[in-house]
Amino acid sequence: MTVPTTIKVALHGMDREMREEYLVVIQAKDMGGHMGGLSGTTTVTVTLTDINDNPPKFSKSLYEFVIPEDLPTEKMGGKVKANDRDIGENSKSTYSIVEGDDQGMFEIITDAQTQEGILRLKKPIDYESKRAYTLKVEATNTRFEPGSNGPFKDTATVKIVVEDSDEPPVFSKPMYFLEVNENAPINTVIGTVTARDPDSSGSLVRYFIDRHTDLERQFNINVDDGKITLAKPLDRETDMWHNITVTATEVRNHSQISRAIVAIRVMDINDNAPEFATEYEAFLCENGKPGQVIQTVSAVDKDDPIQGHYFDYRLVPEMLNNPNFTIKNNQDNSISVLAKHDTFRRQKQEMYFLPIIVTDNGNPPMSSTNTLTIRVCGCSKDGIVQSCNVEAYVLPIGLSMGALIAILACIILLLVIVVLFVTLRRHKNEPLIIKDDEDVRENIIRYDDEGGGEEDTEAFDIATLQNPDGINGYLPRKDIKPDLQFMPRAGQHSGPNGVDVDEFINVRLHEADNDPTAPPYDSIQIYGYEGRGSIAGSLSSLETASSDSDQNYDYLREWGPRFRRLGELYSVGESDRET
């Protein structure tokens, strides 16, 4: 069994901000609360919920901030805060500037975490223009209770003092547009740029050209007054625009620099003569008709006059009465070249040159002489060009194109036959080559045999050692004919891979020592003819040593290393005879 009991508020005007929680002790008794009944107690916690019944309140009524004039935009200039005794959503506020910022120089935003109002710079400020600002800032609750006196809000005054800073010079314009005529003389004044120091000190300003934007140094600037002058002649046809950067620097503080762009337009003057649009080459048919248009010619001009181009064409004075060609103005800055007759023949003249003068409408007018080349060609009945060069020389002798091709083919065939004949004769006259060029080697042989000359000296052939047949073969002497036939012995080596030079020499030495047909050392030797023109004449190995000739052989010393040994032998012989 339970007895329902309701707890009611007995005191009006309870304030959560004063006391948020109440502890209530409740006692229950039976027997209607009479004496002798039993009782029990319990504790009830009563918590008051918050309502938005308190306005935000600034901690100060006046805030003062000092900010430098060079403070970048969107940077913080100061903070303000309005406190609210409520909690949760009821304590949140927004900030706004309600007075004192007619120019929109500042803005205030709310920090969601700290519920502070952050004052930021919206536009650049200038100490020289305005040194202080007074703003009225308001804080307003974002939520209010229906039927209450809200929304709740509070205001405060914010005073901002601008601090002077050293600022860079300021140009009168962010960008300058100047004009100058092409081919203007050097030192021509193109224009002037100006800059000033915005600080109250008013420092002097110096001007310079950023040479990275003027690599060819075509312009100069006066450092004191900013006058831009021409340093080199300009050509509009090369560059129509020149963009340079000018810097301004304070005299007292070179770190304070500002820049401005100067765009210079080169104005056109009539300094170029018109000329043909291309190198024209016209073709005229031999069977053409009088008055036929041979070529349409147009001209171009590098200049760009304001009134546009107009070209005048005429023949050179000495060609005014040209019997072959004339020109016609098409009224669109072009002309047509016409033929005057139909008797053009390549046999008579294959090419014509027509000089034409082209003049523009500039001030002063410019003109040039251009030559049109006209070739006389053979054409079909429909006027289609077939040939302009080759047939002009072939047709006079009555040859057709087919005959010309046949003649050329015969000439080519004849040339091929001649080349083959010369090639075969050359191969036939070439000597047979027994050994490769690599097997032909020079060798130096030392010998002490007096007599003999250069023409009958047979040097030792090194190829003998390389020829397998020479290992086992027998070489008979050429100076005598042996009485007994000597049978050579078989060699011990049977192939080229077994060649041993040392053993080969020993075998040959043994055969020479045991050769019964070998002549004695004092036998008479017969040598071949010594050669013509020899100063020493023909010599014999026997009569040389016993000769009593008074011949002087000192000249042998002058014949070089090859005759040095021979010279020493004869010199020694003469010295022995003298002693």
UniProtKB/TrEMBL annotation:
Q: Which domain of life is it from?
A: Eukaryota
Give TM regions.
393-422
One short Pfam name that applies is CADH_Y-type_LIR
Which GO terms of type biological process are on file? Answer: adherens junction organization; calcium-dependent cell-cell adhesion via plasma membrane cell adhesion molecules; cell migration; cell morphogenesis; cell-cell adhesion mediated by cadherin; cell-cell junction assembly; homophilic cell adhesion via plasma membrane adhesion molecules; morphogenesis of an epithelium
Q: Does the keyword Lipoprotein apply?
A: no
Tell me what topology the record assigns in the membrane. Single-pass type I membrane protein
Output one GO MF annotation.
Answer: beta-catenin binding
Q: Does the keyword Glycoprotein apply?
A: yes
* Role, per record: Cadherins are calcium-dependent cell adhesion proteins.
Q: What is this protein called?
A: Cadherin-8
Q: Source species, please?
A: Collichthys lucidus
